[in-house]
């Protein structure tokens, strides 16, 4: 019986194990997990995320395991759903629900998949609380060095290894009132009744905002469905500022057909052909094909931005400038109203849908780009794909608007030259740059950029 090590028991590991259910070959499987509990993965773990943090993936987008997420949710008892402020009659396949609830779904699906694997003749060995420190390939075998919480060290060999380690966040570099990430969420509990800065305005930053806002008050929905934010009685000085290079918010999740409809022009076959025959102009040729697809999918949008005449830099500007040139909260409110109407009418914004469908195929060219074009790709077209893909649940936008209306949330644009530091003998964090100066009691880095060490922060002693 051939052996296989699966490193990580989150969604990636779970989908691999599900695929093994179709295998005629029987395996001796060892499942390694660094946490005590199996199945949730970091983004959906209850010790890392609060129940207020929403997953930005809906049931219709999640590849099926043994049952759909929506089906599983409907099977939960009403009292359990109440814990997450969910009513069974409002559960839909396009709804967004708390991250830790999605983690519980993955966890229960994993348990059932393991039972089926055993019934089919596979052997399963589970090693939780275990860290795989290194993987080496020696004498046609994979050698794993494994450490566990009880200080036992092992060297184990396997025929196959599946790396399903997934999401990573750095736990080691928090420095007092400077936090390297919003996770685990419990470390944010001490942030109360003070001035808070959040680096970032997208998914992770919204998680940080939600956690801090929940610790200092509550979101209440009135009879008309409008959300309001009320501070706790002992809180009077909460002030949250979210900051990013563009100073914009992500857009609300938009309605589109799922699974994806096929693209008419920007096909994988044509992109692969470019990869094989284009050399120095690979990025520009692929972008030209990208524009042809946008023109076909949404000619009105293409005409409104004069798409045919735009190069990569100009298209990036055309994509982002409407939001950059508007108040972020006004834009968010208008965008939310539009997307809610589109959901009700099942109407798709075709240019956004085209970009959404093109992002993975466009990414095929990345390993073949010159260093110069890779830099252009990362700075000009990748941010568009990320922004389009990372639209957020409508509830997240409602919370942002409610907090701003309550006077406790602002958004600011960071200058290119900003630095972060502790003023001498002061107990706060300062951010300074050209025409920019802010002091915070706490600063949370929610940009998703993982520093390698303390020195990789733009952190220095600065004067105010």
UniProtKB/TrEMBL annotation:
InterPro entries the UniProt entry points to: FAD/NAD-bd_sf, HpyO/CreE_NAD-binding, L-asp_N-monooxygenase_NS-form
All copies of domain FAD-dependent urate hydroxylase HpyO/Asp monooxygenase CreE-like FAD/NAD(P)-binding, residue ranges: 5-167
Domain of life: Bacteria
Protein name per the record: FAD/NAD(P)-binding protein
